[in-house]
Amino acid sequence: MMNPRPHEQAIVFIIDDDEGLREGLAALFSSVGLQTRLFASAPEFLQAKLPETPSCLVLDVRLPGLSGLEFQADLAKANIQIPIVFMTGHGDIPMTVRAMKAGAVEFLTKPFRDQDMLDAAQLAIERDRGRRKDESANRQLKASFGTLTSRERQIMSLVVAGLMNKQIAGEVGLTEVTVKLHRGNMMRKMGAKSVAELVRMADLLGVRRETA
Amino acid sequence: MKPLETSDLKAAETALAHHERANTPVKSISNLPPTSRQIRSALSIAVVLVVSYGASVPFANVPLPPSRGILSAVLTLIFATNLITAVLIFSQSSINGSRALLVLASGYLFSSLIMIPYVLTFTGTLGPEAVIGSSIQTSPFLFNIWHFGFLTAVTCYALTRHLPPTAARPPIGWSVILVVGLICVLVWIIIAHGDLLPNFIADDAKLAPSGHYIPGVALFLGVLALTAVWSRRVSVLDLWLSLVVLSIVLELSLVTFFIVDRNALGAYFIRAYLAVAGTLVLSVLLSENAKLYATIARSNVMLQRERQNKMMNLEAMAASISHEVRQPLAAIVSNGSAALRFLDHAPPNLEEVRSALTRLLRDSHRVEQVFDSLRALFGKRDQGMEPINANEIVLEALRIFRDELRNHRIVARTHLTSELLPIMGNRGQLLEVIINLIHNAIEAMDGVKADRRVLQVKTQLDGDSVLLTVEDSGPGIDPNKMTSIFDAFVTTKQHGMGLGLAICRTIVERHAGKMFVVPADPHGCVFKVVLPIGTPDLQKAEHELEQSPGE
Fold first, then answer.
1. Global ipTM
2. Alpha-carbon B417 to chain mean position
3. pTM of the full predicted structure?
4. B319 and chain A: CB distance < 8 Å anywhere?
């Protein structure tokens, strides 16, 4: 059921002050081929260097020092976007609501069903994987955009504004042939196969028609 | 076996109340020390009184028109305030068992009741003639007698207030009869022998020599009373009583030394002082009572909160136990499930299975440890064993439920034998057992008619044991549940964990006792607790053995 691609091995980070539970969880995840890294406290986790792989956090609500919910808020503040699966010793409904509102993937009451825990971790990892994919696509797009000349950028903004080549030529004061040439280079550099795709990229990049 | 000694709960309670009265005096203004603020305000009132006195002296004989109206109003005020004050102080003396307060209250009662004949000696009160006493000397006579009576009572109070309170109820009824009798005798003297009274008023409506020196004697008594009350004053009451006596002293000294004419300005000052004297203690009594009432109400709330806290603590404890257990349980689930999954691998990863199962076993032991440490915790907290009289804890438990029994209209009967031998045990735990049983009984009887709710608590000697029974007249217990009623989490109540009786049984068994339940006749049930009579030496020896292992 689990089929992680080897080049992006998913990792489950487990933070719980109880060593026995940490080890149990590690065994559980490892039995389905998931890697784990164990931490006894939140600061320990923060000090560790996190690898750039899809991952999630399995966290006890009650942590020594600051509570799991506080830790969740701290992570959000520090812009560390890692999906969290909460565990608790008591089914405290207000706490659950708070955690879920703050974006927790799941809130499990100890002792949880093994499958629930695995499903929750799986879902969290998928969420992280998706986020990472989006982020990397975004980064790539920015890099491509960076290779464009200023003329190509100008033409891109006019293309996404819906102008025909002839209109663009009139707008920028070039011949239609030159515009076609620039436009072809721009589409190739951006890796866009159609104007529609280019429009979507422009949206992500925030490219607007320059008011000339 | 001797027949059980039947003692009424009320009688037992009265005995307890007396016991308490002797040991822990009830807080009231008659024994609370004054605060510095109270002393300051009393002193400032004293200053105002003395200064106004000094200011009034030069004008004491400025003639003014006579005013019966003002005098009547002041006398009515004194009648009413002193009567209320007397009632309040009587009740204080009844609570505290203080004879001194009884005397003081009698003084106030005298001061109040003497107003009746006093007013009747005036012309114009009831028809044109005076109702009693035909002579003009009658009113001043009563005026002086009133002062003597009140000041004597205050002096006696001041001299006896340090005596310890008596256990018996102070004879309030007799005091009232005595005071009323005294006043009747005075009235009789006035009516029958009015001509024997000394001349206070001369023919020209001015004061005769006796009109000065008899108040002079009263003044002397007043100074004596003031000294007696002020020196070694201990309470709020003493402080304000000093002020009362001070205003009477000032008033008397005006009569003795300065006033010549009855209808002069000085007479109005006298009335003002009398009004002050009449209202001071009452107002302080009322305000202090209000404050004390507030304190009591607050502490009552605290008591309730404390009781609730106890329940909360139980819940909190249950929560923390469940947390402690859930932790290893979660680990067990994880390890067990991991082991199963490693077995499913092809080929099975036996190494991982082995280590997961090892951890699983370790975590199972952790669960066990949680319960062990709990037991140790309870064991440590309540180890103290002492000789206990079962009757005492029964009465204590009944006292805790006194209000609740009354609210539920339950008649409580006790049959406590006087020939009990002490049992060795933990007082708090055994009390908890009885409290639990009574509490259950009260709840059980909620369903029956109010006139059939009877709680019976008995103690008796049964061979080497003390037998303690708690019987209710409720609907009884379902015979199917009779045997399991002491098991944990078995309950007949809608809201309840079913832990009470389980805990009771544990406690009783730790005391080497037995506990069981039988149906009552004709309905209800009887819980019986058998506790062995203590053999302190043996238990002590066992205890020492435990303390020194390995020697």
1. 0.72
2. 28
3. 0.48
4. yes
